[in-house]
Amino acid sequence: MAEQDNNYYYGGHIGPAEEQAAAEQKKQNQRTADILAATSGAMHASFSNIAATGTDEISTEKFNTIIAVMLFYGFAVNAILCFAFGDSIINLALGHPAAYLLIYFVGVIVGMIICRKTENPVVGFIGYNLIVVPMGIFITPFLQYSGIDTVRYAFCVMGVCMMLMIGLAQVYPKFFLSIGRMLFACLLIGLVGELVMWCLNLATGIFDFIFVGIFLGYIGFDWAVAQNYPKTKTSAIRAAYMIYVDLINLLIRLIRIISKERN
């Protein structure tokens, strides 16, 4: 399995002359998936401590509509970054990797703090963009090397999974609210296990399936948590950024699984 992975490239099959570049891209893709999963863990740990306060409540329908619009907006921004600025982003990632990572971490951390602290929906939207844009920049090289057909298929699967988990969370909210700590523990254990296997140069494909299960659970959990919060515009933005991060992680893992099956 390890020998097969060494001849694997997310854009397709490769020749001997491209093996070194393919191996480096494989490492970069693994780092991307791990960093995104770690980011999700940090966000969920901080999100659970947000006090449930709110004024100017809106209806449940408007609340859920704002979440849906924010999610659509987030992925639209990601698509624009990937298709319109993909080459520039890849050049940044290859030529200035430190700046590339700094943009991601600073943007996501600042955006998360803003979304947590503010009760102003306009400021919350700015914070949401500070999460969406750096994350879109961060995943663009991964998406570019994966191929449009694979990304499109994975996105469709992700959409179906999202609707299924939200529906289940609506029907069984108590169950999903009860599994938050278990999901967080599984996420940490999965990250450690994947990193150990990666360092030992062993196949880590099974962990992609494990993380798919974890982030499916997190979609349901975050939706159930959101429905228990005061129905304000700011709370909707907070919920949207949590679910958005779940979906990005789910998408990345689905792409890895689908890419390996097709090769």
Describe the structure.
This protein is an all-alpha fold and 263 residues long. The chain contains ten helices and no strands. The chain has helices spanning 2-6, 19-47, 60-95, 97-117, 121-146, 148-171, 173-177, 180-199, 205-228, 233-262. Helix 6 packs across helix 10 and helix 9 (205-228) runs antiparallel to helix 10 (233-262). The chain starts with a helix and ends with a helix. The model is unreliable at 1-14 (pLDDT under 50).
The percentage helix is over 70%
Care to count the β-strands?
0
Separation, N- and C-terminal Cα atoms? 13 Å
Helices and strands: which structural class? mainly alpha
Mean pLDDT: 88
Number of helices: 10
Element-by-element helix/strand order: HHHHHHHHHH
Q: Radius of gyration, rounded?
A: 18 Å
Sheet bearing the most strands, described? Answer: none
Low-confidence stretches: 1-14
Number of domains: 1
**Beta-strand content:** under 5%
Indicate the overall shape: globular
